[in-house]
Amino acid sequence: MTDARSTAEDLPVRVFGGPTALIEYGGLRILTDPTFDAPGDYPFGDLVLTKTAPASIDPADLGAVDAVLLSHDEHPDNLDNSGRAFLADVPLVLTTGGGAGRLGGTARGLAPWQAVELTRPDGGSVTVTATPAEHGPKGCEPVTGEVIGFVLTGDGLPTVYVSGDNASLDLVREISERVGAVDTAVLFVGAVRTPFFDGALLTIDSAQSAEAATILGARRVVPVHCDSWGHFTESREDVVAAFAAAGLSDRLQQG
Q1: Residues 90, 92, 96, 102: is their CA dihedral positive or negative?
Q2: What is the set of domains in the chain, with CATH numbers?
Q3: Where are the alpha helices (DSSP H) in 121-199?
Q4: Residue 9 pLDDT more than 70?
Q5: Cα-atom radius of gyration of the chain, to the nearest Å?
Q6: How far is the C-alpha of 66 from the C-alpha of 10, rounded, in Å?
Q7: pLDDT digit string, tens, across residues 61-94
Q8: Over the stretch 38-55, which tens digit does the pLDDT of each residue have?
Q9: Distance (Å, rounded) from C-alpha 23 to C-alpha 6?
Q10: Long-range contacts of 80-85 (CB under 8 A, 24+ apart)
């Protein structure tokens, strides 16, 4: 059997801005939270969320995508207008139960720890398991909504964790205890703060992302969700500094 950790060097993860990344895994092309709009404002209740930079790729140039891992559909910084249009051409969208009901089409809802099998081109399979996430302090769901993350596993493949918008290191510990060491962690960071919950974190900050890497035993960390939106209070540079301070710079994917 192939050493799963050794194959991770050949596991491309391309980041396009905001929470959007393409993971090539077991012959499948899997996209996280698609956001392709041009910069602009999004009224959101009493708030206005501002997108400050475009994605680094046009969705028309992305090529075929086998599945989208959508942590949640209710916030424009995780699914904007162009992202919604993009979903119409994707054969499978995995998201929350409520999100699947709102989106329809090929969306399929998963509860935390529920799994689905995807067929690989070589005839094998990839298992996508939904993981719990809290988009703010405990009890935040009535305000911020339901969110999930994902774990990808497969025979001969490294384990990949996609956090979604999560602010709870306790949940990261729970995930680590259940799935074991993670090779690649795609962490949604950015230290998001809004007036909700007196400015409490709605996603992990840079120092917590370094702690999460240690908890998960991650060989590689790919930070996303730390640019292109005005309500993200920390940038990729903050993540780089936090990993350097923790002595973990070698785990951080460059670029």
Answers
A1: positive
A2: 6-249 (3.60.15.10)
A3: 141-144, 169-179
A4: no
A5: 17
A6: 19
A7: 999 999 999 999 999 999 999 999 999 999 999 9
A8: 999 999 888 899 999 999
A9: 17
A10: 80/34, 80/35, 80/36, 80/37, 80/42, 80/51, 81/37, 82/34, 82/35, 82/36, 82/37, 83/20, 83/33, 83/34, 83/35, 83/36, 83/37
